[in-house]
Amino acid sequence: MNTPLSGPAKAWRLAGIGAGLLAVSAGFAYAAGWIGSPALTPQRIIDTFEAQAGHHPGYRKNHAKGVCVSGYFQSSGQAASLSSARVFAQPRVPVIGRFAIGGANPSTPDTGVPVRSLALQFSSDDGQVWRTGMNNPPVMAVSTPEAFYEQVLAMTPDPATRKPNPARMQAFFAAHPESTAFRQWAAGYKPSDSFASTHYHSINAFRLIDANGSSQPVRWQVEAQTPFAALPAQVEDNRYLQHDLAQRLKQGPLRWTLRLVLAEPGDAVDDPARPWPAERRSIDAGTLVIETVDAPEQGACRDLNFDPLILPNGIEPSADPILAARSAAYSESFNRRSRESLDTGARP
């Protein structure tokens, strides 16, 4: 898989997935100083998103279309020895979350973008907060903010088709063999019929800090307890995933397992494009339970910035440079939409 993708169909598929993932995360490349030019800032990437997707006042500049949810996390206690974070010991932790799709346009059909995301805020009884933003791809296509910038350029829509140019995408992936794992995931990706049956990954690594100060690198994922079912070939409802989620929650809570995957020496802790071996030991840290869904953009999550560097004592970031850049872009998006009024006319 280190050779360029062959065939326009594969290129278009990668382009579609890449477009969604970039809309979720490409802005991270523009944190001031990361690219080597002062012109490439978080402000500029948000401007770029709006130039390509249109200006939608009051909406998030990434993950524009989503829905707020709430519930709780029920700890298993198994991670308490690895981290002093109260969230892993407290029996029941309130959670506010948001399911979303990739993209900067809130009018995009739910099933029109392959990338799905789940952002969560855990509020433990010691007054600390843990925020995390996860996506369905387990890895990113590239390793550095500089490579993100190149991917942004490769994803620029062709004026004639308003879609990424497959040949340009082929050239980009050929020049970036670190994208192998991402391309393998994309080639085998089969979308489920629900947010509820989707797995979500932290992608970036973090460090758990125990009571003695010892550090354990981890990535985490939430694994759906709802059985997988394939997405129908034809979907007419623009809010298919949101409506499905609301209907399922009318019948009862939905559950995911929070799994902590433990790195071993030699694993790529600071490179989000490199997967860890499948046999790595993991811990069932507990169960995420989602109980209610709110109106899109107007629920409890509306004013939350799901910055992945908002961490409690007992969890620290790795040295992955994309984490700091993510934080900068999230801040710019949050500050900008906070000054705007929600454009309700943008909703499908």
Polypeptide structure, described:
The protein has 7 helices and 10 strands. It has helices spanning 8-25, 42-53, 145-154, 166-175, 180-188, 240-251, 321-338; strands spanning 66-75, 93-101, 116-123, 129-135, 200-201, 206-209, 215-224, 254-262, 282-293, 315-317. Strands 1, 2, 3, 4, 5, 6, 7, 8, 9 and 10 form a 10-stranded antiparallel β-sheet that branches. Strand 6 (206-209) and strand 7 form a beta hairpin. Helix 1 packs across helix 4 and helix 2 crosses helix 7. The protein is globular and about 60 Å long.
Shape: globular
Structural class: alpha+beta
| DSSP strand tally | 10
Question: What CATH first level would be assigned?
Answer: Mainly Beta
* Rounded Rg: 19 Å
Major sheet attributes? 10 strands, antiparallel
Total domain count? 1
Any key phrases for this structure?
348 residues; alpha+beta; Catalase HpII,  Chain A, domain 1; ten-stranded antiparallel beta sheet; 7 helices; 10 strands; 21% strand; globular
SSE layout:
Blueprint: H1 8-25, H2 42-53, E1 66-75, E2 93-101, E3 116-123, E4 129-135, H3 145-154, H4 166-175, H5 180-188, E5 200-201, E6 206-209, E7 215-224, H6 240-251, E8 254-262, E9 282-293, E10 315-317, H7 321-338
Antiparallel strand pairs: 1-2, 1-9, 2-3, 3-4, 5-7, 6-7, 6-10, 7-8, 8-9
